[in-house]
């Protein structure tokens, strides 16, 4: 039997183990799963201990192309291990089948963005690409069962051994791969690294030792956090998320995402600069909705530092705001007219006044980014009347950095999967990536 080491027991590892079971390759290996969490009962499977929304979408959750058939399978895996059972016998329409799952007489909570054809068409006809997504909400209360059941499911295989309370500190890659933990060293024929975002220390170590495993990143998303009155966006509140992409007249792709109905704008502080973000607080509703409008900026050789580019624009906004921990706030009307904002209109900011300065974001954005933002917002106003009101607010700068991606075809018998690979950022995509990788073994 070959020896396999799996580092981390989260969503990606769950997918990988399930893939091994379904392909029957599991019998070929003696498997050790290292997990730094104390034990499975203490909710250590961080991927599934969260809110537990499992999405089905081709456009959100990761930068991989995951076939719908795999995504349905993953939803079913989580539902069935959470105690839900199908009430439909036949799986003619996979979404209807999954929607039929219930537990103790209660249907699984389900949501769909752009469910209404007319809304979809409205966006589509104005050049937007609406990102469709379905979600199944397991709910925090059942997640403990999900963890337990999945753990029982995998540990029922005699050749699968879980080692909890163990931190993998380093790996040494070779003809066999060595795993160095705080409790000793182990050697494997096959190594799976699935440590999620919380495993960044180990990933930094691997990147430093094996830079050939890391793919060059050429992208950064730069733009603003946009804030407007709730009533403008109200008709979309029952949609999980209004997420659309649009190719602007500059040729740059611009996107709307991370919508927070009745939410708040907040600062995102980094070591040496500050950007903006948004959130919704279930207890404190506000009069405003906020969302990100970001332009995807791609660079080509010889420039190789998109992250530095984004950081420097954010820093410039902080410099103009007169403080490393302040951002620029401007009305959309003033932004369009190249005027510094001196007075606000009908929309009051939800970000605390100590955190911003009224200014002119035109001094920050290169014109190609600025033109893309204006084109996007003006065009969106044709679909959602009121988005381009002169006194709506924009906060600069919002930046989304792309994480470095790991190549899985450089070192033999090594599989870096899930969020730590840089390719995924959701339970669905992390689990699916693991699942597909195992099928290809
Ligand atoms: C607050 C919050 C809420 C979220 N809600 C959702 C949601 O509703 N829906 C959704 O799709 N996504 C959600 N996500 C994202 C989702 O949790 C991740 O995308 C997903 O879990 C990634 O799976 P993974 O296997 O890559 O990592 P994880 O699931 O994080 O698993 C990694 C595992 O590795 C272990 N580990 C880390 N380092 C080491 C080490 N050195 N040695 C040994 N073990 C180690 C960790 O303890 C962990 O158990 C949420 C994330 C957060 C933070």
Automatic annotation (TrEMBL):
Taking every annotated instance into account, which residue ranges of this chain make up the domain FAD-dependent protein C-terminal? 242-399
Q: Which InterPro entries match?
A: FAD-depend_C, FAD/NAD-bd_sf
Q: Which domain of life is it from?
A: Bacteria
PANTHER family, per database record = DEHYDROGENASE-RELATED
The protein's name: FAD-dependent dehydrogenase
Q: What is the lineage of its organism?
A: Bacteria, Thermotogati, Thermotogota, Thermotogae, Thermotogales
